[in-house]
Structures are given as C-alpha cells and as structure tokens.
Amino acid sequence: MIAPRRPRFLLPVVLVLLAAGALLPLPAAAAEEAAAKVSLELYYESLCPYCSRFMVNRLAGIFEDGLIDAVDLRLVPYGNARVGSNGDISCQHGPYECLLNTVEACAIDAWPDLDVHFRFIYCVEDLVVKRQYKSWDSCFQKLGLDPKPVTECYKNEKGHKLELKYANQTDALVPPHRYVPWVVVDGQPLLEDYENFEVYICKAYKGTSPPNVCEGLVHPPMALETVVARNGVTYNSGGIKLATAEDEGRDSKIKMRLPDDDN
Q1: Which backbone phi and psi does 107 adopt, to 5 degrees?
Q2: Can you give the pTM of this predicted structure?
Q3: Tens of pLDDT along 57-83?
C-alpha cells in the first residue's frame, strides 16, 4: 500500500507567510509614530504669488529639515475659484490658472506618492515665482516623469472632476477660507500666521520622537483669534495682479535639487 503524500503547497505557503512582513503587525513604536503625524493642509491656487512663494520658499523646507516625518501633508489646488451653475470653473487669475490648478490636481492623482507629486508641483510653482509658468511642462523632463497620465487627465473630463472634488473640499472648510494661502494644521486654520506653520506642527505633534527641528522653534504662535489679514494673502476677489515688478527677480530660498536644476 502506498502511503498518502503530504500536500505540496503547505511548505511554500508557510514560507510566503513568514517572508511577507506586510502581513505582520507593525511594531508598536512605528504604529504610534504613524498615528502621531500632524495633518497639514494647504488650500491654494496655482498663480497666486503668495501661494507659490510660500510653497517654494517655506513649505518645501519640511523635506529638508526632517519635519515631513511628523506630517501628513495634503495639497488642495483650487483656492478662490468658482463653480458656475453649469459646472464650469472660473479662476481668480484667469484660464491659465484653471489649467495649472487642474494639472497639479492631475499630478496628485497620477502620482499619489507625496515625494513625487510635491516635487512636480514645486517645480511648476517655482516657475510661477520666476514668471516662467508657461514653461510648466518642462518639469516632466526635469524630473524624468512620464507626462502621459497628467496630460491625458487635464485634457479630458477626469481633470475637471478632480477640480470639482477640490472645490467641494474647499467650500466645506469650517470656518470658510477667506483668502489663500489657507493653511490648516491639525484642523486649525492659521490665518495670516501661516508662515509660522512649523511651530504649530511641533506643538500639535504627540509622538515620542519629535523631529530635531522642533527644538529650535521657540517663536510663540500669535493668538489666532486676533490675526487680521493685512498682506501676504490673495483675497477671495478679482483684480489681483500676479506679482509686482519687485517679485519678478526674487530668487527661491529653498532648493529641491531638481535633476536639471536651473532654479
């Protein structure tokens, strides 16, 4: 009598289960750090000069100083745009802003990895700072990215639907946004004190290992209830110039080290 064979699949399955770390629970410390991340949301529009300078000169710095490890960053490219009764979108700085808002929305959708879509959007907004934004598509080559997913997206209905989604998110803000950039940390809008966003992040961070940069941030935040926007923002209204003559020659302070970096 021939003895029954053992099922062949048991050993390979066991090996696969042991090798697949993704099937095992994260260490408690790693899970705690992930849960401790602070939400950081930037509501902006692509051709707002204050938005582009904030993104290029300040926000990009969190990738350099390590604060990004404590942050869950979300970009919302819509700003002060308007959705008409027919579903069409009009933008504060004109049709080209609508185009770039949609391009950046498509980039977020095409490349969900924050490191990828932020570098692309940074590249575009750096060109806005330099008033060279009509060369925005050069960012594909600079970063070695395939333009096809973004190009197809903004040229068809998908890009429009993404912008309508961001319109709903922006319009649902409580309290409503009054200008851009509108920066929200841990659910709290920073109003005109948005340039001190790192202080608020460090204050809100509940993890056991705060980034080293937090040790040097000693400037106390302003009392937000007393903050009144005077400058450094683009109001929810028309007739705003893209930038002043002084702004045209202003260089970026933060460098993302793009491959063909002429920034």
Answers
A1: -65, -40
A2: 0.78
A3: 999 999 999 999 999 999 999 999 999
